[in-house]
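Predict structure. Chain length: 122.
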Amino acid sequence: MEAAMNMLCEKCGGAMEVRREGSTQGLYCTQCDWAVVTTVFPEIKKDMTQYEVRVTQGDVHNDGQIKAVASAAGVNFLAARRLLGEREPLVYSGRAIKVLEVKNSLESAGLTCVISPAFIYS
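Prediction complete.
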């Protein structure tokens, strides 16, 4: 950001500022309409690895945990309760961006999970 403050617009010589919105980022002149824009995709969105999310500890009597497993696994409440009763059940398999969402949801419900292969995103 500081580097952009030292940059001057090619069109009018005005100060440039950095803006980022979603996957778009760029340098914009603060005085005229000149800009240079590009797209940036975070590594997690480009990761094509198939990950597996397994629950390592859960309570078959905790409705919140059962609902979190049901949502992650795409099953109903009773099927999720059965899953939670298994030893390290597979509750989701997919790409990194969705795995992070599932992981956060499970952990918010108080569940402990393991992801394989090694998951580098938090």
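Summary: The chain has five helices and six strands.
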